[in-house]
Amino acid sequence: MSDLPTRIPAGAIDRDAGERDYRRARECLAANNLDGAARWLELAATNEHPAALTELAILHLHGFGREANPAHGAELLLRAEQAGGIPETSYLLAQIALGGMVLPRDPPRIDAWLADSARRGYPAALRVAALLFGQRNEAVYQQAAVACLQRATDARDPISATLLADRLHAGRGVARDVALALDLASELRAMGIPVELPESDGGADSSNTDSAIEPPWDALHIDAATQPDIERHCKSPVIATCDDLLNDEECRYLIYSGARFLERSQVFHPVTGQPLEDDVRTSHNMSFVPTIDDIGVRILQTRMAQVAGIDLANCEPLSLLRYEIGDQYRPHRDYFPPSAPELAQPGGQRHSTVCVYLNAVQQGGETVFPNRDVTVQPRRGRAVMFCNLHADGSADPHSLHAGLPVLAGEKWLASCWIRVNPLRLF
User: Fold this and answer.
1) pLDDT of 235-244, one tens digit each?
2) 129 three-state secondary structure
3) Where are the domains of the chain?
4) Of the candidates 313, 304, 301, 261, which has an alpha carbon nearest to the alpha carbon of residue 284?
5) How does residue 1 score in pLDDT terms, banded at 50, 70 and 90?
6) Which residues on neighbouring strands pair with residue 232, listed in sequence order?
7) Which of 70, 73, 158, 316 could pair with 57 in a Cys bridge, judged by C-beta atoms 3.0 to 4.6 Å apart?
């Protein structure tokens, strides 16, 4: 099987043959015949079938049935775009470009790709558009956020439905409808999504109930949020905090996106470097691996990495953690032990860590640095950043830190571990 399907001259393209081969690929996928599906996708792609090119690109991006090759995946997506694309085509191009590894991180072009995908009704693009419109307080953008969430909810996207339930309950960008919010929440909680349903803050105009408005797509910008001030608490190791790095809806976005995938947290064995469960860490966590990651998560993780002054390309997949009453992470260091297999990865050692508190913890859950007498109180949207290494790249034992037990309520945390070198494939 060739790495990329042959590109035939435009005049020789057979659209009917491409559609026929694509239907056969879908039949193979329905029968869990991945090899057969890939072969028919290859054939359909030779006739520049946009859906076949897009789905073949996904196989290359994630290494399904072959070695991962994001560069080939990006090339296929660009070909699909030239052939007219499907809504997912421009979404994936935007997602790849956000990483800056395979395609240039060109914000205007990413904005255009994202807007195109959302305009054409792709649910993941609509919910990210809602997140971006929701960053702006003007009524027109709040209503645009609701319109996007409503369209994605109609397409059965559960994360969008959860964010819409929150807005209906709070009356943010839409007339308040507590009964409908509660109905949605009941269905979504049964799916394992911990719907919060915030109360009204009185901050946004909720008088307009027309969720069928056409959002102002030209005003959609991935870099619209401003970076708050950073407060340094220690020079060696660097320990700093940044309040309001994420807004309330962005915090809930991460919780809702990852909660269904939580598993018991693990630690690394100090000698073998292998992961294992241990009472030193009693939380639950998940990672936004590439097959779960989305543009919204990437945008928020990029903002977190900027606190450390490092690019998204150096970041491990973002982790979501939940600490219940009594859960804690005893004193530990984030850098890998010398025997850890992760050190053989292209990214190398963990340079720094950025964590963001995602909810209001009732009591407990502070982050402490015992060697430097620094304690950070949990507050929704607050980031804490610290360096794990000395300036010369050696491990800094004074980066010892702990997550104190939660005494009341629960604590949700997003953790971004940042490597010395680029790690991500795309």
Assistant:
1) 999 999 999 9
2) helix
3) 10-85, 123-219, 231-419
4) 261
5) very low
6) 240
7) 73
Which helix or strand (DSSP H or E) is residue 251 part of? helix 248-258
**82-94 tens-digit pLDDT:** 999 999 999 999 9
pLDDT on residue 220: 97
Strand partners, 375: 368
Residue located via tokens 């052939």: 83
Answer whether CATH 1.25.40 is correct for domain 10-85.
Answer: yes
CATH code for residues 231-419: 2.60.120.620
Cis amide prior to 87 (ω within 30 degrees):
no
H or E segment to which residue 357 belongs: strand 350-357
Give the Cα separation of 213 and 201 in Å (integer). Answer: 24
Asked if the domains at 10-85 and 231-419 fall in one CATH topology, the answer is no
Burial call 6-44: b when 16+ CB within 10 Å, e when fewer:
eeeeeeeeeeeebebbbebbbebbeeeeeeebbbbbbbb
pLDDT over 60 at 362, yes or no: yes
Q: Write out pLDDT tens, residues 268-282.
A: 666 666 666 666 777
